[in-house]
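Open question from group meeting: does this chain pack into something compact, or does most of it stay loose? Before anyone orders reagents, we agreed to write out a predicted structure and look at it together. Recording both the input and the output here so the notebook holds the full record.
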Amino acid sequence: MASYTESVVNIVLIATYELGRQPFGLASPAAWLRERGHRVACLDLSRQAFDEEAIRAAEMVAFHVPMHTAARLAIPLIEPVRRLNPAAHLCFYGLYAAMNEAHLRGLGVATILGGEFEEGLAQLATRLPERLAQQRSGAATGREAQAEPVISLARQMFSVPDRGGLPPLRGYAHVVLSEGEHRIAGYTEASRGCKHLCRHCPIVPVYNGVFRVVDRDVVLADIRQQVTAGAAHITFGDPDFFNGPGHALALAEALHREFPQLTYDVTIKVEHLLQHERHLVALRDTGCLFVTSAVESLDDAVLEKLAKGHTRAEFLRVVEVFRRLGLTLQPTFVPFTPWTTLESYLDMLQVLREQDLAANVAPIQLAIRLLIPAGSRLLELPDIRQLAAPFDAQALVHPWRHPDPRVDALCDEVQQIVAASEKLKRPRHAIFERILRAAEAAAGVQAAEAAQPVLVARAAIPYLNEPWYC
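Structure tokens returned:
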């Protein structure tokens, strides 16, 4: 087991899945911890093997769980970590740590950190040697109350992420451009949290309408080191790049001045794309390749249930604006909800086809089923409370079944189409047409004529080769 030192702690930070990106959620706290003299090993299990030797040497093992998939993959690792090193202090940090606090405590996780987690991890590491010494002497039980806040929304002075020890950027997601050109993609965050309270969003139970800015110099320094490491494109992982448009635009302009050939992508709400339409030209002119926007549904009643803050008509206005400006929009959806009908799902597909957006949508986005995690604002809705089953600790959600079994059957079929087609590397437009045929059959609608060739060739639409998921 790890040997006790007076102030230096051996720490292993683990990521299980961060959307195919080099994990910012390891690099950022690693900087804080290494600056304080601690020994930090970073393991990205989406790209690296589980390192038993590092776990045995650790005094603290901390899992970053920013999303549902990451949490589902991390929880089964608690048992092997405990078996290899029963004395190690276990910590989970990130959105899905705070949301699942009760369940994680029951599994023996000692420290849970949500929101702005770097300072909490640093404080934990500072006091851990004394706590471990007390445990070894029998003066502490190991089940003392957590000293750090479970959710911190404190304004932090960020450090430049330390990416040392992580796999090279070339092993992560690439941006695919015209004629099959691939660009190595980096990832950073210019802000966290969100001003908005969309009911289905996992950010809301933790940040509750608060967002925090990362210092511009820190963001630029992080991008600079990734460019040196080979990045030719940067993904900004902010929940909404226009939560603070002044901060975002100044950053984009500074980035473009320093690296005029570098491209980037951002995520922005439909509501903000309209509110700040005048700024979209600046995004285009500073190298923004595409904008991801969580459209979620084209049914106004569903959008109201989700508290999305936009309508179907407003989404279509954004499509027009982007086409006029020559910007690429990548809509994302949660198409299978308790309020989805066969007709509304088919309508969504038909609109995407009519608007020539089939190739702009990652196929998995046509198969996603609404998640109801612990603490979700969806549970405010009487029809959701009636429909949702008790919390399933294994799945980390409140399970639900659609009142119309045909909708659940279609969801299963679409997921199978996407999985099979992705394995065969079928183009997005071909996958879309298969899904459209399945939806028409499920709705008992005569199949439309085969689609005409798309107006914009698929290769001309840039995309990340590991598409957004949850």
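Observations to bring back to the group:
Residues 169-464 form a domain with the pyruvate-formate lyase- activating enzyme fold (CATH 3.80.30.20).
Residues 149 and 224 are 33 Å apart (CA to CA).
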